[in-house]
Amino acid sequence: xxxxxxxxxxxxxxxxxxxxxxxxxxxxxxxxxxxxxxxxxxxxxxxxxxxxxxxxxxxxxxxxxxxxxxxxxxxxxxxxxxxxxxxxxxxxxxxxxxxxxxxxxxxxxxxxxxxxxxxxxxxxxxxxxxxxxxxxxxxxxxxxxxxxxxxxxxxxxxxxxxxxxxxxxxxxxxxxxxxxxxxxxxxxxxxxxxxxxxxxxxxxxxxxxxxxxxxxxxxxxxxxxxxxxxxxxxxxxxxxxxxxxxxxxxxxxxxxxxxxxxxxxxxxxxxxxxxxxxxxxxxxxxxxxxxxxxxxxxxxxxxxxxxxxxxxxxxxxxxxxxxxxxxxxxxxxxxxxxxxxxxxxxxxxxxxxxxxxxxxxxxxxxxxxxxxxxxxxxxxxxxxxxxxxxxxxxxxxxxxxxxxxxxxxxxxxxxxxxxxxxxxxxxxxxxxxxxxxxxxxxxxxxxxxxxxxxxxxxxxxxxxxxxxxxxxxxxxxxxxxxxxxxxxxxxxx
Length: 493
Ligand code: NAP
Fold this sequence. Notes:
Blueprint: E1 6-11, H1 16-26, E2 32-36, H2 45-50, E3 56-59, H3 73-85, E4 90-94, H4 95-98, E5 108-114, H5 123-131, E6 137-143, H6 149-159, E7 163-169, H7 174-178, H8 180-183, E8 187-189, H9 205-210, E9 222-228, H10 236-246, E10 251-257, H11 261-267, E11 275-278, E12 292-293, H12 295-300, E13 305-309, E14 312-316, H13 318-331, E15 344-348, H14 352-364, E16 367-371, H15 375-385, E17 388-390, E18 402-405, E19 430-433, H16 442-449, E20 453-455, H17 458-473, H18 479-489
Parallel strand pairs: 1-2, 1-8, 2-3, 3-4, 4-5, 5-6, 6-7, 9-10, 9-11, 12-14, 15-16, 15-18, 16-17, 18-19, 19-20
Antiparallel strand pairs: 11-13, 13-14
Helix pairs in contact: 10-18, 13-14, 13-17, 17-18
């Protein structure tokens, strides 16, 4: 079995010349290539293999297994046989064709099974059939219809005594591709560049290496990640992986697209996840899955951070302290919260973010008013934190020193929406918009024009991530790096 999981780039070019070019390009990012012979219209196998620079897997996938080869089985197997004769290092034969493939040469034989719709319940019996062959390597590529399917794949890899390639395709299978070295897959597939994928869910090789630090993942790598839905565009993997890398920590941070958060947390105990960030829509529901929740998070009723300590999962809320930190920074005075004591603060919104800052403001002794579109939610929160309450339209009637937008109004892509009329703004008013994408939505633009002191959600976002990082690692977070990454992702510098 290979000591290190190899990175294999599928060559999906449609002509022999383009495939040769891509093979050379792959040298920069990959350990080996998979020649998808079924993609090439004018296949010149001798010429193609004559340009072999990296170890090669010869594959000619039929349409029935997600490939493009529409000819008959015997001509397909003859092609693969020729590839063996021409020096392909590996040859991939589907389980259903195994008995018909007679060629024996120097190439190592991979027996493969693909499922383009699901990770089937009878996978064990399929694995048994794969094992009954004399293949050097067993390959299983199923489709994840849920994040939980990855656990089936990890289990297979850990138990396999023969070299195995196992992965889940699709968005929900991304983690099986990244964690291939942790669970001992012979290789993982990654695209040469965006648009050159051979299967759904393949990341570009450069991203796998730079974002997820693929080359540094090994059996001891500790798993962290963000639970949410949707999650594909979360900036948290970029921030936390860069921070782990900066400190040389053997940890990786993944996106988990989760439907049922309690079932997910329970099931993923099997792979000993060390910490989670939790985002929309799971901040409240995750509580039921935890062993302990700190007092503040309990009062807020929302957890955005989970830390594993001695097999116990402990929840806390770093949004609250991060929001207060941001405000105090903007006010530029004492970090002890004295600065907010007695200040008249209007919070727009009564959702998770509003609850987080409202409890923080109460601890600081601020005089808070909660205004929300759904007034009964404003009333409920106000009663919990000893605040005033009302509809959003009251904003122009309430005297205030600070206005906080904790609604999602103005968030990308609705950047020209605003939760309040600009008549509420006056010079000197501090306006804090928790939104960080964009850095300046309409609310802040209008507040700035009126001479207000403006604070975007960027500082809060970086601070809550910093606090999470420090809870997980006990080390000082590289906040400048984290901020720089958010700005880069937002297209700003
Ligand atoms: P949430 O729990 O879904 O709450 C959304 C809030 O926005 C509710 O008060 C909702 O009012 C209000 N709202 C939504 N659409 C509205 C509309 N069209 N008109 C008026 N009010 C509307 O979300 P959340 O977790 O609190 O997040 C709120 C915002 O804070 C998001 O933009 C999020 O990105 C941001 N946030 C930023 C950070 C950071 O680190 N900077 C951290 C957490 C959250 P109803 O009660 O009437 O539905």
